[in-house]
Amino acid sequence: MEFITYEQQDFVGIITINRPKALNALNSSVLEELDKTLEQVDLANTRCLILTGAGDKSFVAGADIGEMSTLTKAEGEAFGKKGNDVFRKLETFPIPVIAAINGFALGGGCEIAMSCDIRICSDNAVFGQPEVGLGITPGFGGTQRLARTVGVGMAKQMIYTGRNIKSDEAFRIGLVNAVYSQEELMDAAKKLASTISMNAPIAVRNCKKAINDGLQVDMDAAIVIEEKLFGDCFETEDQKAGMGNFLEKDKEKKLKIVPFQNK
Length: 263
What we know:
Blueprint: E1 4-9, E2 12-17, H1 28-40, E3 48-53, E4 58-60, H2 65-68, H3 73-91, E5 97-101, E6 104-106, H4 108-114, E7 118-122, E8 126-128, H5 142-150, H6 152-161, E9 165-166, H7 167-172, E10 178-180, H8 182-197, H9 201-214, H10 219-232, H11 237-256
Helix pairs in contact: 1-3, 3-4, 4-5, 5-6, 9-10
C-alpha cells in the first residue's frame, strides 16, 4: 500500500490515510487502497476499527481537485460511484468504525467521517462541504448523510453556503461526539475502541446492523429487524457466557447480604 497504513493493536485495527503532503486528499488510488484494506481486515480477530489521517493538520482535506478538474460528465459520475461504493462498504462494515478526525475534514473528508459509526475530533478540526464553491455538489454521500446526521435544515445551510465550521460547532450540532486536544485524540479513540472490543462481538455487530438497517425502514419493519437480530444472539457462546457471568455475580451478591436480626 502506498497511501494506506494498517496497524493491529489487540482487537483494534487502525487505518491511516497516509498522504500528508496532499493533506490526505482522496484520489482514485487512495480509494482503491482503502477498499483493499477493508477487504483484508481479519474479522475473526478485529472487533473495532479506527480511521484517521497522517500528520497533525488534516484528517482528509477532500477529494483530489487536480484529478477531478478534467473529468467528463460520465467520468465524474463514475468517480462519485467509486467513492460512494467504498464509503458504503465502510458504513456497512460488520464491526464499528471510529473516525479520529485530526484536522481538516472537508468535502470527501467530511463525507468519509460520516460513513463511520462514531466521530471524535481534535480541537483544530474543521468540517465542511465546500463543493458548491467549486461548481459541483457533494459526490460521496454528503447530501444524504449530512441531513441524516445533523438534520435537514442545518445540512442545507452548510451545503448551500459551503461554509466551514470548527470543532466546537461540529460538537454543538451533533456532527461529532466529542472534542479532544490533538495530543489526546488518538488515546481517546483507542480507549473507546478498546471499550467496544471488550463487549460481546456478535452482539455489537448485530447492534450495528439493527441500527443501520432499521433507519432505512418504518418503525414496524424496524422492530422486526431488531427482533431477528436479538434472537440471533441466543445460543451463542457470547450470550451463554455473558448471562452466565451475570447470574453468577448476582448469586454472589445475594450470598453476601446479611439479613437484619432482632436482638
